[in-house]
Amino acid sequence: GIQVEQSPPDLILQEGANSTLRCNFSDSVNNLQWFHQNPWGQLINLFYIPSGTKQNGRLSATTVATERYSLLYISSSQTTDSGVYFCAVIRGSTLGRLYFGRGTQLTVWP
Amino acid sequence: KAGVTQTPRYLIKTRGQQVTLSCSPISGHRSVSWYQQTPGQGLQFLFEYFSETQRNKGNFPGRFSGRQFSNSRSEMNVSTLELGDSAHYLCASSTQGTANTEAFFGQGTRLTVV
To answer: What distances in angstroms separate CA B81 from CA A22, A27, B7, B41, one per listed residue?
Structure first.
């Protein structure tokens, strides 16, 4: 199967700082999603981004499918941004299956 | 529009028992997939159902099974529970389960096997 690697595994920031999370994948994919896992364990959708750049408030994401990576930018971090961020990819040949990275654990201190 | 609903939220079972978890997808979504999350293995794919048919299956033993009903609700069953089955089980729904459809997750079921 496809390998998805996320970096860094852990990130500690002070409130107000900016950060960049990276997701590399080992083969061509048809789509990519970014999630934030909240304290109750639910995966919250952040971006659905097969290519290009999208922005949503303080968050933005860029996927360069030809180079097999995606970036998630968080600006002006807040304590509520803390949690685990996952990227997941999907291939057209494997219906209904997301391949997940191991996640980036983000901790934002006040 | 209601999100993906999983029940129960928490469950404690004894080794050797069996358990059934339920997932109700977003209205109109026909694809339901299941994932197991553990600290050691991360998020691993169990299986995916579309229109009551299993289309894809991960690398789990036969003790893990599932089904989907005509209303797209899905159940996952684990028989002869082992301590290592303790995990957070998440289900996701999407309209078609294809590459161009976005997946949405429920809150999950935390299963503890003692």
So the answer is: 37, 35, 18, 18
Which chain A residues touch B55 with a CB distance below 8 Å?
Answer: 95-96
Structure tokens given for A83: 């949690």
Q: Is B42's CB within 8 Å of A102's CB?
A: yes
A45 → closest Cβ in B31, B49, B104: B104
d(CA B96, CA B79): 29
Confidence category of residue A40, pLDDT binned at 50, 70, 90:
confident
**Closest residue on chain A to B40 (Cα):** A102
pLDDT in tens, A55-101: 999 999 999 999 999 999 999 999 999 999 999 999 877 778 999 99
Residue B90: other Cβ atoms inside 10 A? 25
Q: CB neighbours (10 Å) of residue B91?
A: 30
Quote the minimal CA–CA distance from A30 to chain B in Å. Answer: 6
Under the banding of pLDDT at 50, 70 and 90, the label for residue B98 is: confident
Peptide bond before B61: cis, by omega within 30 degrees of 0?
no
| A57-78 as b/e: b if 16+ CB within 10 A | eebbbbbebeebbbbbebeebe
**CA B113 vs CA A66, B65, B91: distances in Å:** 44, 17, 19
Q: Rg of chain B's alpha carbons, rounded to an integer?
A: 13
B36 touches chain A (CB under 8 A): no
